[in-house]
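Researcher: Here's a chain I'd like modeled. Treat it as a single chain, no partners, no ligands.
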Amino acid sequence: METINIQDFDTDKYLNKYLNPKHQGKEAYIQKVTTRHNESVQRIKSDDNLSETQKNQYLKDLKKRFDARVDDINNTKYWVPPTQEQKDMMLRFIEIEAESQQTFLSSSLELSPLPAQTILENRLCVMLAQEAKERFSSIHADVIAGRVVQRFQLVARYIGFIRFAQKISRELQQMGDTALENPKPLKWIAKTAHLGHIMNLFAELGYIDAPKKRNGEINYSEFARSIGKAFDFEGSNIGTLTKMLSPETNNIEIHNIEKISIPHVKDIS
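Model: Modeled as a single isolated chain. Structure tokens:
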């Protein structure tokens, strides 16, 4: 798995083939294989360069392969397009896998003392070198070969898994590009609590479009990581900044909060 270039892994192409297979069913596929087999039989029989002994041997080998192929087709369970319910289920499991991976990664980014880039690099390495083999070894070869398999949920989770790995890879690339363009963040002199409170005010008052969760609330973990790229603040701990961004966990004293006054962006536009 570690040898795969996941950025070239076209999950949309595979998913489209999986949800909308071109074949018309088992019997139609067997008929197609039979037609090709008969054409091969005729070519061997009409080949004047072969002796009768050679022809008989080739025909025997061809028949053996044909029978094995038909048996393989008959033993394969998935030969018809999935129902709409199954399609919806697969798309949902792709989302579930991505959400699960994001929850785990967000927790690491919030709690670990390591830099975000190191955490992402370590996580990507574990995903591709360990988790992929442990969780998806039974279907990996089929997916790479473009074959469809019956295990809807596992295939969906594998696609979600690869897409999330691709997302991490892109973020690491962006970090590298950003480091080259702007290697030194601005130095925040005041306390981390001040940074969190003021940045949250900027978001609430319309100056900053902060990252959002599905329910529309500010995603403080993502917000903290974005701020951390722009500012060198006390301790540079993303977990602490995450807490300081939330009004419920910011530890600035109330009388000091009242001293910070920023108008809504609409009032000065």
